[in-house]
Write a structure and sequence with these properties.
Blueprint lengths: L3 E4 L2 E4 L4 E7 L8 E7 L6 E6 L6 E3 L7 E6 L4 E6 L8 E8 L12 E2 L3 E6 L1
Parallel strand pairs: 2-11
Antiparallel strand pairs: 1-3, 3-8, 4-5, 4-9, 5-6, 7-8, 9-10, 9-11
């Protein structure tokens, strides 16, 4: 069992930066691949970024490539999403999720989800 709690969301102007954190409980965190997803009002949930259990592999949605960076610290049971050059279209609730297998884009394959943190980017 893994419990996930996101933090770090907020209101930021376009062009600004935020760093999201996702703290995980449980001793098996380091065995899970992790992902970040987001859902804007009236839209479907979409994949943002994924990182393998070791941190050796990462994968990004085209819409955030070059602007967002996913990382993890297994000693702290935490995964991060550094978001730079934010745009109004990045406004959404951001969720982290844990996956036993490396299928970063497939939300249905993730086993555990956090409650989400709101990110709002003003123009």
């Amino acid at each position: 069992q893994v419990q996930l709690v996101e933090s770090g969301g907020g209101l930021v102007q376009a062009g600004g930066s935020l760093r999201l954190s996702c703290a995980a409980s449980g001793r098996t965190f380091s065995s899970y691949d992790m992902g970040w997803f987001r859902q804007a009002p009236g839209k479907e949930r979409e994949f943002v970024a994924g990182i393998s259990w070791s941190g050796g592999n990462t994968y990004y949605a085209d819409s955030v490539k070059g602007r967002f960076t996913i990382s993890r610290d297994n000693a702290k049971n935490t995964v991060y999403l550094q978001m730079n050059s934010l745009k109004p279209e990045d406004t959404a609730v951001y969720y982290c999720a844990a996956d036993r297998f490396w299928t970063p884009q497939n939300a249905d394959e993730y086993d555990y989800w956090g409650q989400g943190t709101q990110v709002t980017v003003s123009s």
